[in-house]
Design a protein that fits this description.
single chain, about 500 residues, Metallo-beta-lactamase, Chain A, Rieske Iron-sulfur Protein, 29 strands
């Protein structure tokens, strides 16, 4: 199967999820290809794109770009099969994780780019890296094809003030890629409201990206996944989860972004772009692949991939011991001492009737208390033995386990604790938690609407120059945390206050 049916030399081919192949002036760039199950064999591409795997493996590419280390972008099983002489373009993160991983896989040419750093693939074809400049390690890539600008943001939340403008086509996330709120044990009516709120916030963030970049066309990408393990079937409910299909939100987008063309692609479809050999008045043209799969019979998909999703149940389910948990959390805390300097938290781990109460931070005279008088934990995490053992043995991390939707959560009070969740998500990369500490200590301020306030959101570092201020509330444009303008008290999202004072 040829990449382009008409021999066009300026085109994008969609591989599904956040995957693309870009070709211009004879140079070919492979971007975020994902074909195999991710996150403890729970996530699968939707619709099924496996028919394109042999195509990708059988073709020649000059460059490869991988945006970040999440398994629905960093498909290690595929990456082990690609030609190791290809030049790999990766973001230059503080942790250097992408360079380390590709070096370990045997890739010979790895180019690491910093925020807004450009690299010429060939005359007329330049890429520019855009990073999430907070503690999170995500990236997007701007492709300049003889003046035609394609911005692939996938999951990345580059600060609004840092986004490039004059974009012809924007590819960005519209569906959720998080465990909140669907992994929590909320009553049905509470869950429904929280799902609606998260979906609304995701779309609002997308609308802002479209407007800030001046995008003339939008390409829905980076989701949603589907869940083929029957145990995870409830997360395929597109109305009750944060994983909608594009058709579920298309009308809302059209109302919020009138005049923005939508390029609805499915795996295998091609967008021909105006470039060196194609002049189409600046407008991209979508070409459907033969036999394009626009939806998915999940029962048939589940049967086709039975060996893959059931591989999770081939892993060890040997119960963990209190000593193993104690050693695990002792190491995690020792790596993050400065981050946890004023932190205290009681949590509970539950697996098949066994319970371990864990004291973290200042409370941690001992890390695990089993068989003593239980105390009330603020967070409870319910895991099956396979998931817990994979975490304790460090075959997977908490971030991946949470994304797998194989962890149930309860918190009392129902307030997000950024320090605790960050310890789980980033604690194995202390450079990220140290960056969070620096973000909290940042003293830079801005003046807005009669207020002097800290410039960067204490949650994820978003530039509050684009905050929404009204009715006595300051709202972050990224994750929509809210604070009282008069006091800086956090009233929605978490507990971290915002430094704010009125101007004379």
């Amino acid at each position: 199967m040829n990449l382009y049916r008409d021999g066009s030399k300026t085109a994008l081919r969609y591989l599904g999820h956040a995957g693309f192949v870009a070709e211009h002036r004879g140079v070919r760039l492979l971007m975020d290809p994902w074909f195999h199950p991710a996150f403890l064999d729970s996530w699968f591409p939707y619709p099924d794109n496996r028919a394109l795997l042999d195509v990708v493996l059988g073709e020649r590419f000059d460059y490869l770009y991988i945006s970040h280390a999440h398994e629905d972008h960093y498909d290690e099983r595929l990456l082990r099969m690609l030609d190791k002489s290809i030049t790999v373009i990766v973001p230059r993160y503080r942790s250097k994780i992408m360079v380390k991983r590709f070096t370990a896989l045997g890739y010979e040419n790895v180019v690491a780019l910093g925020h807004k750093e450009s690299y010429e693939l060939t005359p007329g074809f330049t890429v520019t890296m855009y990073l999430d400049t907070s503690h999170k390690e995500d990236s997007g890539l701007l492709l300049d094809l003889d003046g035609f600008r394609f911005l692939d943001l996938n999951d990345c939340n580059t600060p609004m003030s840092e986004l490039p403008g004059d974009i012809n086509v924007l590819a960005a996330q519209y569906s959720g890629a998080m465990w909140y709120p669907n992994c929590y044990d909320y009553p049905p009516d509470v869950m429904r409201k929280k799902v609606e709120a998260v979906r609304g916030d995701l779309l609002d963030t997308l609308y802002r990206k479209v407007r800030m970049t001046g995008a003339r066309a939008y390409l829905p990408s980076a989701g949603p996944p589907c869940f083929l393990d029957p145990v995870l079937e409830p997360y395929n409910d597109r109305d009750a989860t944060i994983f909608p299909r594009w058709e579920d939100v298309a009308d809302q987008f059209a109302e919020a972004c009138p005049g923005v063309e939508v390029l609805r692609l499915f795996p295998g479809d091609t967008v021909r772009l105006p470039g060196e050999t194609v002049r189409l008045d600046g407008r991209p043209v979508v070409e459907r692949a033969p036999g394009t799969r626009t939806s998915e019979d999940l029962a048939a998909y589940r049967e086709r991939r039975r060996d893959e999703w059931s591989a999770f149940y081939d892993q060890s389910a040997e119960p963990v011991t209190g000593e193993e948990i104690e050693a695990y959390f002792a190491k995690l805390q020792s790596w993050n001492k400065r981050f946890l300097s004023d932190f205290a938290k009681d949590i509970r781990l539950v697996a098949e009737g066994r319970m371990w109460d864990v004291r973290l931070g200042l409370l941690a005279e001992r890390f695990v208390i089993e068989g003593e008088e239980p105390y009330d934990p603020e967070y409870t995490l319910l895991l099956c033995p396979r998931t817990m053992r994979a975490i304790i043995e460090e075959r997977t991390g908490w971030e991946e386990a949470l994304l797998s939707m194989r962890v149930g959560l309860h918190r009392e009070p129902d307030v997000f604790d950024l320090t605790f969740m960050s310890l789980l998500r980033y604690g194995n990369q202390p450079v990220q938690t140290m960056q969070m500490l620096r973000e909290r200590q940042n003293t830079e301020t801005i003046d807005r609407d009669g207020l002097r306030m800290q410039r960067f959101c204490p949650h994820a570092g978003e530039d509050l120059a684009h905050a929404i201020i009204g009715d006595g509330i300051i709202e972050c444009p990224r994750h929509h945390w809210k604070w009282q303008a008069a006091t800086g008290k956090c009233v929605e999202g978490g507990t971290l206050p915002l430094r704010v004072e009125p101007l004379d």
